[in-house]
Amino acid sequence: MQIIDKRNAMLSNYEVLALLREMDEKQREQANSNPNVKFAENLKTIQFEVIQNLSSSESPSSTQTPEQIETTLTQLKNYNLTKSEKLQFINLRPQSIAELELIIEDCEDRFGMDTLRELIYIIGSNLPMPGQVVRRLESGADALDDESMTFIHYPSEHQL
Amino acid sequence: MFILSVLKDTIHIQPYDFHKHKFDALTDEINRIYANKVIQDVGLCICLFEIISASEEIVHYGDGASYAKVTFRLVVFRPFIGEIIEGTVSSNTFEGVKVTLGYFDDILIPTHNDDGWKFDHDTQVWVRLWDSQIPWTSPEDKYLYMYMDKDTTIKFRVIEEKFTDIGTKGPPPKRTGAVAGQKAPMPSSSSLPSDVMIVGNNRGGNTQNVKTDTTTNAPTGGKLVPYELIGSIAEVGLGLTSWKWD
């Protein structure tokens, strides 16, 4: 065995899930046409566990579509974010300023509060959470108001 | 969390797989060898992503299997340092809080590195203390308590990764006049049986310890894991996701 490139590319959770689902489908087809076909135990284990984890209701990747991810990325293009930051946006779907600040390095220096609010809006509208979709779209202004409140509240904590 | 790694390996196709298409046979074999295995300094392999190139197969004298040199890409679980991951609390141990992702269990959030932790003896769980921003009167109100109950969703930052070479229990060493008791040579070929990469011998080569260690799973850190992640929740926004940080 020879390792040629350790980090060739990064994959989002959605891509992994899509790949594994496709593989699962193929295996099922094979099993249908030939009931005696056997698959490696270790592959089945990890495949099952990853699919289960990534498609659980808490995981953003369970409801994402390639189109959603694409539009999110095009809209995030002009924000000067690194690749890994964008990847984590898609994997984690941050919904608050606090979550954004965790993902973005040197957040306070690089982005103003207005930009962060824009980011939240882009993520919220492009990678919607089922159940929350309607509320966010209908009362987008309210959500922004909430965040500005947390913003006012937040620096005062630092001063303490 | 997931990356692609390019690897090159000699893949055997056994005669009973000759009826398969070459591509399918190689795919199945690569998945059998690598899926759910940890490669040192690479990460936990999930499955094959694609085959980049494969050479002509060669059949050696005295062996029915065919051999092909294959370059391929694997999907690998290898979060980068600083990445935020969501998992579930699997247990509270002496060392700290163990977190699982379902497919990967060896994540530890150590509780002895800072004083923001307390062990609750009644419930046997670790408690994270957060400074309360609300003006407090009694000492109990000084902190907000975050209980690391089992099966709760937790968000943490990866701060360290540890690869431990636990060796492989691969094919028996070839008889090349090795002295009894001498350390068995590490097999470098990929013809590992499917279930062995994780089971290993101790760092000191003490075979007696292996049995006790792998079975007891002692909280004192007896169990050796090939790939471990160290996490931290010591930042605003991390910790249990049920908390509203706003």
TrEMBL record, chain A:
Keywords: DNA-directed RNA polymerase, Nucleus, Transcription. The keyword Nucleus applies. GO terms for molecular function: nucleotide binding. The keyword Metal-binding does not apply. GO terms for cellular component: RNA polymerase III complex. Gene3D superfamilies: 1.20.1250.40. GO terms for biological process: transcription initiation at RNA polymerase III promoter. It is found in: Nucleus. Pfam families: RNA_pol_Rpb4. Residues 1-130 form the RNA polymerase Rpb4/RPC9 core domain. Belongs to the eukaryotic RPC9 RNA polymerase subunit family. This is DNA-directed RNA polymerase III subunit RPC9.
TrEMBL record, chain B:
One of its GO terms (biological process) is transcription initiation at RNA polymerase III promoter. Transmembrane segments: none annotated. SUPFAM superfamilies: N-terminal, heterodimerisation domain of RBP7 (RpoE), Nucleic acid-binding proteins. Keywords: DNA-directed RNA polymerase, Nucleus, Transcription. InterPro entries: NA-bd_OB-fold, RNA_pol_III_Rbc25, RNA_pol_Rpb7-like_N_sf, Rpb7-like, Rpb7-like_N. GO terms for cellular component: RNA polymerase III complex. It is found in: Nucleus. Signal peptide: none annotated. Its main location: nucleus. It holds the Pfam family SHS2_Rpb7-N. The keyword Cytoplasm does not apply. It comes from the Eukaryota. Belongs to the eukaryotic RPB7/RPC8 RNA polymerase subunit family. This is DNA-directed RNA polymerase III subunit RPC8.
